[in-house]
Amino acid sequence: MKMLRVLKALLKPKIVETPEDYSGMNFLVAGLGNIGAEYASTRHNSGFMVLDAWAQASNVSFMTERYGDIATVSYKGRKFYLLKPSTYMNLSGKAVRYWLGKLGLPLENLIVVCDDINLPFGTVRLRKSGSDGGHNGLKDIQLCLGSTSWARIRIGVGNSFTPGSQVEYVIGDFSEEEKKAMPAICDKVIDGIKNIATIGPDRAMNILNTRSETHKTGD
Questions:
Q1: What is the pTM (predicted TM-score) of this model?
Q2: Which of 17, 26, 149, 157 has the most CB atoms in a 10 Å sphere around its CB?
Q3: CATH 3.30.230.80 fits 23-209, yes or no
């Protein structure tokens, strides 16, 4: 009888638990921006603003690490590594490539958040892949990764600038009315990121991209 019990135990299928650090449950969320207090409330720092809002709401702090500041938040069994690159906008790819490798994550577990002058202020768009659209941060990430097959959420900042003043516009501060609208926009983006991880990018895209709230700025 003892031998029979041993044989049954050997033949019984084993339940293999998923490791806590299983990459399928981990995501790198890179919010793009420029370091320094002078850039903190500028349009180009929309990505930083989203991650700051998420970290604050989750009561976690950023730690300065190689190529950027990192904070970790969890949601429904998923772990999100929030990265604010310290390489400045035009060299964002260096930080993203390093942290993808360090965390052992595939491209499909990368989500990039950035500003976009091609969208009206308050518009948010999620895409699973695509071109850089003239955005230098996205362009450098694409160059460093050798691929465009990663999710990006673009936050519209409008394009109310005269020819030749695009740089001044994106590194300029939001208007007071726009600043008041940003917390709600950040919350919308955070919900979109959570949906990517829990219900998949296609369903997340359908939810996020069909919301039509537009924040008018009195232009």
A1: 0.86
A2: 157
A3: no
